[in-house]
Write a structure and sequence with these properties.
- This protein is an alpha+beta fold.
- Among the domains are: about 60 residues, no CATH class; about 80 residues, Thrombin, subunit H (Beta Barrel), CATH 2.40.10.350.
- Helices cover about 35% and strands about 30% of the residues.
- The chain has three helices and twelve strands.
- A six-stranded antiparallel barrel has the order 1-2-5-4-3-12. The protein has a six-stranded antiparallel β-barrel with strand order 6-7-8-11-10-9.
- A hairpin with a 7-residue loop joins β1 and β2.
């Protein structure tokens, strides 16, 4: 198309647009021009829509670039808020578990036939050769050495082996130097033995000095025998998991899965009198 042809085409298009604009302005309805109007609308609307989208996308893009610092600061604030909420949720969950344990501890304390004093674990022994924890009760609270300690479910935790004025140290039941007399709870057995802690094992103790013909089975519950003055009778210790023959068949030993665990000890009861 020559330049003259383009000029004519543009002139006709502009004239049509002026005519359509005049018809809109003066609200004149001419049936013939309605077809032209619709044709022009259908022809131009995709072009107008394209440039409109391009305009708004460009505006949003530059607004995003200009506001990037503000957006980054908002993201940081949101991240800090999320971290704070997560921490608060963990704290509330910890309080919930602590309240549950304390309720169980108090409920158990109401039904035991001996006097007890509640205490909270505040520290652990750093030694690999000892299994001991520190509680927030001491001589000022009436704590004395050798007092037995139990958990909130009544199982034996250990004994007091050092007493300060406001804190004490507990030798846990799985400490290598810990020993307590045990007896099978089953009434038709009542087999006795000595339950000893093991080095680097806070889950299993060994019960030895069991008679070769004693009636002891896997699944038997072992409790304190009460044959000494150091522990009341009947405190749960653990359950028999394995039985072995010792001393060429002259005696037996058993692996005892403990009811208490260092990983779950947070509050305890010290038995002050029985």
């Amino acid at each position: 198309m020559s330049n003259k042809g383009r000029i004519i085409f543009v002139s006709i298009l502009v004239a049509l647009l002026l005519i359509v604009g005049a018809l809109y302005y003066f609200n004149i309805n001419i049936p013939y021009f309605q077809y032209i109007e619709r044709g022009i609308y259908n022809l131009l609307s995709p072009i107008i829509e394209f440039f409109s989208d391009l305009y708004y996308n460009t505006v949003y893009y530059w607004q995003g670039i200009l506001n990037v610092d503000e957006v980054m600061e908002k993201n940081k604030n949101l991240e800090r808020q999320i971290a704070t909420l997560k921490l608060e949720n963990l704290r509330l969950e910890s309080y919930k578990r602590e309240n549950k344990r304390l309720r169980e501890l108090l409920s158990f304390k109401e039904h035991v036939p001996f006097e007890t004093l509640g205490a909270t674990v505040i520290g652990f022994s750093p030694s690999l050769w000892e299994n001991k924890v520190i509680i927030n009760r001491g001589s000022n609270d009436g704590i004395r050495k050798q007092m037995p300690v139990i958990s909130y479910n009544g199982s034996l935790v250990g004994r007091i082996d050092y007493v300060g004025s406001s804190s004490s140290q507990i030798a846990l039941i799985h400490d290598p130097e810990f020993t307590v007399g045990g007896i099978v709870q089953r009434t038709d057995s009542r087999t006795i033995g000595m339950v000893n802690g093991q080095l680097n094992n806070d889950q299993v103790n060994i019960m030895d000095k069991i008679s070769w013909d004693a009636d002891i089975q896997n699944g038997d519950i072992i409790v304190t025998s009460g044959f000494s003055n150091n522990y009341p009778k009947g405190l749960p210790i653990g359950v028999v998991k394995e039985i072995n023959s010792d001393n060429y068949g002259l005696s037996q030993s058993a692996k005892i899965k403990l009811f208490s665990s260092l990983k779950t000890i947070e509050e305890v009861l010290v038995i002050t009198d029985f």
